[in-house]
């Protein structure tokens, strides 16, 4: 049987792609990768042939495909223990926070797109909806970290931390100031070997989506 094969979008912009990459790496699962540039004919022609949803990320397992960042992460957690907290309540809470990132924080996602080429460039003005999302997110991070004592949301690193790593890049890109303990957590996420491996791929990537790259509003 061939290795699991993870099909991904641009490392610079695709936050959904980054998440299962971090999880599979942390799990120590051996896998191959294939990056396909978003918003191109190549993507539009190819993805529907490999993914039931026509989106990245998609994990190919032989003739099967899992096409969603959280579903791929759940598959990894079935293969390898330790990706969710052991304690059932903490595990449910970690799933709650990962689920909230997967389904919510829409203003952060749309108004502060992930762009790993952007560094400490604040937006001129933050919409009220973005400010509200940041405040909700800080509350969620703060309460998990104060309960667990850190260093990660539920003590040991978990899938919930993978799901918030792209947010940490946005905080850095858009120079969002955070309370000191949340700033430390955010920086810690960006100091993990799995993220640094992803960042190295992004740094070597020369695909550009102009309206994201030039959107220095
Ligand atoms: N809920 C999905 C979202 C995946 C998603 O929206 N992927 C985007 C890229 S980051 C995509 O494939 N876009 C392609 C398109 O819109 O044509 C997940 O968690 O994987």
TrEMBL record:
Residues 4-84 form the GST N-terminal domain. Gene3D superfamilies: 1.20.1050.10, Glutaredoxin. CDD domains: GST_C_3. Pfam families: GST_N_2. InterPro entries: Glutathione-S-Trfase_C_sf, Glutathione_S-Trfase, Glutathione_S-Trfase_N, Thioredoxin-like_sf. This is Glutathione S-transferase. It comes from Ponticaulis profundi. The lineage of its organism: Bacteria, Pseudomonadati, Pseudomonadota, Alphaproteobacteria, Hyphomonadales.
